[in-house]
Specification:
Blueprint lengths: L2 E6 L11 E8 L2 H5 L7 E4 L5 E2 L4 E8 L4 E6 L3 E7 L4 H10 L24 E2 L2 E2 L4 E8 L4 E6 L20 E11 L9 H9 L7 H15 L7 E5 L5 E3 H10 L6 E4 L2 E3 L2 H7 L6 E2 L2 E3 L6 E4 L5 H19 L8 E2 L1
The structure holds flavin-adenine dinucleotide and uridine-diphosphate-2(N-acetylglucosaminyl) butyric acid.
The site of uridine-diphosphate-2(N-acetylglucosaminyl) butyric acid has 17 residues, from strand 13 and helix 6.
């Protein structure tokens, strides 16, 4: 494994933050992980689409370039694919669509790598990746062994998994096995998908039609990181007690909500942030996207600390007005 020194991370993060990594190396094979040097703090980098860099990164940045997709099992209903963690997520989605397989079409166009997908259980348009994951394999950094966890052992939740809790900082995900459907069951329940399909006159959609509808919706709403730096939703959508929601509803009858359980509901953080007047806000080059209040943006040369400061100001104002604590989704380095 070849180590480089003082490498700019500008091309490696979608927020477009210009900081350097003290040491940087590509991981091309499992053998590279077996030979990792001891004593350096390790930082694992996929597509850099869910990180905020707030200063020089000390230690060794491991850039995941593990590649390969293989069919490992098949029956009348399903195909199991083992996918190396450095594969680009959207390319993998397109690959499964070309194979006629269903399961991850609603997750089209999410940036990043396959290996990062289980960490926050990526989700969009009524689907979460946990619905198709069979197992996840990782290199345990301190025990120096390869471990495989079943779906149940990953403790998936909304934007959450064991990789963000008990195993935090201890693993390099090497591959993910997916179970996909030969007889796809489409999920077009998310309002905008139905509407998009109707608009183009598709009554009996295929997996490809659904993916294309998702791609069109996403392109119209979310900023393209190649044009404007961002990391998608900066915050998670908060879940609050039903009683709290009822109080807010009395004051704000239009507050959107989604039931989570009998006594909790989720409210869109974008709505809370917009109500506080932040949508379209800009301080220097750090801002809140004009079309989606949940997305913080870098208009050019914002520093990670400026974005961090803005996110803190948003958290404070939402807490003051609604008594709700927003939690950051983006991983801060
Ligand atoms: P990185 O940003 O490189 O890493 C994220 C974290 O995971 C870091 O802490 C890193 O150390 C760790 N990590 C990454 N790979 C590994 C590995 N192999 N082993 C161990 N640790 C690892 N997310 C959604 O869920 N739904 C969306 O709809 C969505 N839309 C987005 C839209 C845009 C425009 C953008 C920019 C982002 C969006 N995201 C969305 C967030 C992001 O795409 C996902 O979180 C994605 O899975 C991150 O992948 P990555 O490879 O870029 O991870
Ligand atoms: N809304 C506003 N103002 C806005 C935007 C949205 O009030 O500026 C309200 C509207 O009521 C809208 C609701 O918020 O109906 C939800 O908005 P949207 O459908 O755009 O979804 P979101 O909650 O903002 C979540 C995910 C996205 C995912 C989309 C689509 C989280 C944190 N975010 O966003 O994931 O793509 O749903 O399923 O759960 C990501 O995680 O990075 C991400 C982009």
């Amino acid at each position: 494994m070849q180590q480089l020194q003082n490498i700019s991370l500008l091309p490696y993060n979608t927020f477009g933050i210009d900081v350097t990594a003290e040491h940087f190396a590509d991981v091309n094979a499992l053998a590279d992980l077996q030979e990792l040097p001891a004593g350096l703090p390790l930082h694992i980098l996929g597509g850099g689409s869910n990180i905020l860099l707030t200063g020089q990164v000390h230690g060794l940045v491991l850039h995941n370039k593990l590649k390969g997709i293989a069919v490992v099992r098949e029956n009348d209903d399903h195909v199991w694919l083992s996918v190396a963690s450095g594969e680009v997520w959207h390319d993998f989605v397109l690959h499964t669509i070309e194979m006629g397989l269903g399961g991850i079409e609603n997750l089209a166009l999410i940036p990043g790598t396959v290996g990062a997908a289980p960490i926050q259980n990526i989700g969009a348009y009524g689907t979460e990746v946990k619905q198709t994951i069979e197992d996840v394999s990782f290199w345990h950094l301190s025990e120096r062994t390869l471990v495989t966890l079943s779906n149940a052992e990953c403790h998936f939740g909304y934007r959450d998994s064991i990789f963000k809790t008990q195993l935090r900082g201890q693993f390099f995900i090497t591959s993910v096995t997916f179970r996909l459907n030969k007889k796809p069951v489409l999920n077009t329940s998310y309002g905008a998908i139905e509407q998009e399909l109707n608009e183009v006159g598709i009554a009996h959609p295929t997996v490809k039609d659904v993916a294309q509808a998702v791609i069109r919706i996403r392109t119209s709403k979310l900023p393209d990181p190649k044009v404007t730096g961002n990391a998608g939703s900066f915050f998670k959508n908060p879940t609050i007690p039903l009683a709290h929601y009822k109080m807010l509803q009395a004051a704000y009858p239009s507050i959107p909500h989604y039931p989570v359980s009998d006594d909790t509901v989720k409210v869109p953080a974008a709505w809370l942030i917009e109500q506080c007047g932040w949508k379209g806000h800009r301080t220097g080059d750090a801002g809140v996207h004009t079309k989606q209040a949940l997305v913080l943006v870098n208009y050019g040369h914002a520093s990670g600390n400026e974005i961090w400061q803005l996110s803190g100001d948003i958290i404070d104002s939402v807490a003051n007005r609604f008594n709700i604590s927003l939690e950051r989704e983006v991983q801060v380095w």
